[in-house]
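Hi R.,

Here's the chain you asked about this morning:
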Amino acid sequence: MNSLSMLGNAFVGIMNPTSLGLMIAGVAIGIVFGSIPGLSASMAVALMLPLTFKLGASLGLNTLVAVYIGGISGGLISAILLNMPGTASSIATTFDGHPMAQRGEAMKALGLGIVFSFLGSVFSFIILTFCAPSLADIALKFTPAENFGICFFALTMVAILASGNMLRGLLAGMLGLIFTLPGMAPIDGTARFTFGSTTMMAGFDTLPTLIGIFAISDILITAERMGSGKMQVMTVKKVKGFGFSMQEFVYHLPNFLRSALIGTGIGILPGIGGSTSGMLAYVTAKNMSKHPEEFGKGCPDGVVATESANNATIGGAMIPLLVLGIPGDGVTAMLLGGFLIHGLSAGPLLFVKNGDVVYGIFAACMVSALIMLIVEWTCIKGFVQVLKVPKHILLPLILVLCCVGAYATNNRIFDVQSILLFGVVGYLYHKFSLPTTPFVLCFLIGEMLETYLRRGIMQYKSFGAFFQRPIFDVFFFIAIAVVVWTVIKEYKAYRAKRAGLNQ
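And the predicted structure, written out as tokens:
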């Protein structure tokens, strides 16, 4: 039986009230968890895991997949409305989504995010359905050397993000790298920069760090503005449909396709994740744009790029899970537990022994994406009501949710203290006009960069052996070319500015 016929049978199999009801509930729960800073899709899947025990394999796994899809997409809501990424995957959505909300285009930003989240998901699910085995073979060729090359390439994107003020951008990025060092070193587990504190042994967790940099710093900045009487009152422009025209939709299609390919490709590689793919897609969109200076000031292209990429990562991350039994990210690691609970073993034999379950998951992915689109579009007018809540009521509630979410991540008070520390860091970045984007990118990439470098050196005995890997060479030399090109462009802009001042 070919893939199309099996997929058709799977669609027929899940179109019953019980299955649809569970998927709707799963998507809704995922959206709630994704939209609250500090909670996450992986936390939602972990909590739902025991509840699916008494369900059959198909119903249980389809419900978990629905939670996954809702959780990743839900992060855009708080990212756009409150400048607080609900999940790590939505970090880059804040860069242009919240500025759009500030100028009254919250509905349009949400509409773009929802539609291109849906399209990004469907794009990756189509690739998942028909190309999973072939892409998994490619993923197997990626050793630590290739993964280091990708991380190094991603790190050099700081040069583009810092365009306009290279020195400030590099300083911000270096501070991000420094904060990845405390804790246990990768591979050998040596404690470093812990200052004798046992709570520092685990280092700074990603989610509390992001909550602090975005949420707590924004609360401090807003409170300062309220005290000085400079608080900006947000308005919400009324829109029809999703807030954008068909002409705008067609304009965004090239950006969407490029970003969805980046998201799917990054998702296939285990351990890199949606936050990296969203950042890479955002930087690529900025680099390819005719108006890069508009990014960070409320450019719709930035929202389209990051939401297309981080949702496309879902289908990409499912490929190594289903075909190789290797989780692509934290959420798929939880899904692997779901397979074990139902007595299934993810891997090549899964397609042979339980093909009906696999294609049921494929069908559930597409149906859940459609449910996500409908649920978020139905609630879009309710979401923007958050902007009308008085700040003196909203900010304390957000602060409490952030503290609860930070504590729930690892059940330790140190993470609550971390969000306050990074809140102050984010506030100081704002006061000294340092960009937070390079900091976040370097913080996300730093640990992976070191891990893959040390693994590669252990495997190949020297760094020079990396250059015998063609895939590594491509990423490494493209990265070097990007840095050189950016420096030359910055130098020419500096000379032109100096020439203009001397006239």
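The longest strand covers residues 183-184.

Let me know if you need anything else.
M.
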